[in-house]
Hints:
Blueprint: H1 4-9, H2 14-36, H3 41-61, H4 65-85, H5 93-108, H6 126-152, E1 164-165, E2 169-170, H7 171-190, H8 196-213, H9 217-242
Antiparallel strand pairs: 1-2
Amino acid sequence: MRIQLLDNITGKWSMQWIIVWFICGVIALSAGFWLTTDHTTLDWFYLAVSFIGLICVVSLSFRKNVMGNGFGMGATAGEVIVQATSGAVGLMLAPLFNFFTHVYGIFYWSKHTDPDGDMIPKSASKAVWLITAAFIIIGLALFPTVNDLLASYGYAVVEDDNSLFLGFISFFWINVIAFVLSITAQAAMILRYSFNWWLWIIVNFVWLIVNLMSGNYIFAIQTMVYQVNAFVGLYEWHRSERG
């Protein structure tokens, strides 16, 4: 199904859209920074990393290899530093994984580009969908055990404090689901499968809940900004996939 507005945003209005979206993202993140943080050096550093992340995700949605994966390497490296300096060593795993996928992606995408130099996305076969579903199921099943093992060495990814969302949903399991889905979505993106954006839409929704529950409002704002981009990315990749 073609949607004229999205055709324009991903076509003749693409540069205008990118600029407007980026400016809105900067304003939203800056407002969150001023209103919800203590303006420490670490806070300033993460704000800078967040701006790099904006460039990364919008470039990925428009299939720009060097901008997307290049800035992705910068953003994820920054996130690793943020987590390490804040003592959340376990949370370094996801950005570390994403960093190396971007390193791989910058070479892999360069081999699959159209005449304009943009990456060509591909459709997922039934086998890929099944493998992805199996990966998610196995990841969810094994994560608590792996997390406990890491915790025994002082590197727990998610702390289980028995807190609940809406009084009955485990905050621990919301985090687990978000972590496993984000890893899966990142892998699907680097491998050029357009369905990755469906996963990112789900991931962003779950991370929004996590961030609101933990009072991390700047991350919540970032998640909503990313969510808008995810819908545009979904349309752009599927349109380019069809040719």
